[in-house]
Every structure is written in structure tokens, then in C-alpha cells.
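Researcher: Structure for this, please.
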Amino acid sequence: MSTGFHVVVLGSLVPDLLQTLEPVQGPTGPALKNELMLPAVLDPWAGHALFEAAHLASRHPGSKVWLVSLGPKAKLHQLMMSIAQKVPFELVAVDGSASGFTDSFEVAEALAGAIERIPALDRSRLLLFGGCASASRDAGTTVQMVGERLAIADQFLSADELTVSADGTLTVLERVEGGKYLVSEVSGPPCAIAWATGNLPEPPNNPQVGMMNMRTIMPALQKAPAVKLAAQGTTFMGVELPRQERKTRIVKDVPLDDMAKEIAEWIKA
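Model: Predicted structure, C-alpha cell format:
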């Protein structure tokens, strides 16, 4: 394709996965204890989508990548300090809650509105990327709802690979049951792809890329519109930490075949 793609990646911050998260009941509803103080990282699923987008753009001249992020402005600033050196992108920031208790319907509405306001975006070349799930709230519905609001009918979920043929046909590998892939083809953009892990490693830091990205990151943060996610109609009856369950049995001199048989029976159960 000579004109390239316009790739919009949906991705925001989540608390560092090594932190202990303690739910609390705040004055405005459920929240995490000291949430604004917790170190944040880019949602791992969205990170895979961003790296795949940058890789695709690098192979097709004329392509461009936007990262659309919804989160508290101060936390987004911190997040950009850690990912700006990874791959080239232009940030589109929306100032609002990135809490795990937000409703994906409202989040999708805010993200779709931000995408529609991107002045240089060519919808006929649009590839909407995002994570197939979220590390903070595993609803797995945001990309689909944003796609629907943008009238994108071709949507692919839990994708691990995207290839582009010489005639512009897109081939997508989606995860299905039993460790198998569903192979789909679409004639071209627009389409939405919610990524699983993909096949790419995390890129190393590149200071030159970081300097280039920072030219657009700071203005984007300064003019980020504020949105209020009230989750109207949603009632949280309670919040609590997941129960930890660990059963350890110490045995000796068990044949490997017996161990394998026991594990298989446990999985089947």
C-alpha cells in the first residue's frame, strides 16, 4: 500500500503489576487505596498493540501511529516518561479516571470522541488497535465498542499476527479454543484489532525517538479535555481482595508417568 495506514492505538495506565492493590470504598465509590501514589505502567495488552502498530508503520511508508490514552493527566505524564523512548507515536490524551471501576461503555464513548477529533486522521485508512483485555479490569469490551461507535464493522479479537499482502489484503490470526488460530482476511481498512500478546518483543529505549515524541506529548497533555466517568446505573455492592489459595503436597519417589496422569486429571476436573 503506497499511502500507508493510520493506526490508532487505545492504551492507558494500570498500577504496576508488582504492587499490592487494596480496594477501598471512597466518597465517590470503589477505588484503590492510595491509587494516585501507586507507580503506573502501560497496560501490557495495550503495550503489545502499540509495538505491533509501530512495527507495521515502519514497514509501510506514509503510515502514522496515534496513542489515545484516558487517564489522570499527571499520571499520564509519568507514564509517557517510561514509554516515549520505545516507538514513535503522537499522543492524544483525555483527562479522566483510569480506575478499574470505570464502565467500559463510558470509556469507549470518551475514546471514540477523542479519535473523531483527530484532525489529520483518514478514516478510510484507519486501523484501530488495542488490547484484547485489561490488566486492571478484564471486561475485554472497550475496543469493540469504540469500533462500533466509529462504524467499523470488521473487528478481530485476541489477535497475535497481522500481515499485509501486496494488494493490501489484511490477514489476521485470532486465538480460538484449543490453542488454534482462526485465519481471517479483509480487503483493507478500516478494521479494529484487539491484540493478545502478538509476536514482538518490547523495543529497547531510543533517546532520539523519545525526543521526537516529547514534542507532541507535552502539548497533548496540556490541552487534554476532561471527562467525568460517573458509571451511572452501575452499583458496586462491595470490593475485596481476591482470595489466595495454595495447596502444596510434598511427595517423594513418584514416577513421572504418575505425576503426569495426576496433573492431567486435575486439569480435566
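Researcher: Any notable elements?
Model: Helices lie at 44-59, 73-83, 104-116, 142-149, 207-222, 256-268. The chain has a mean pLDDT of 89.
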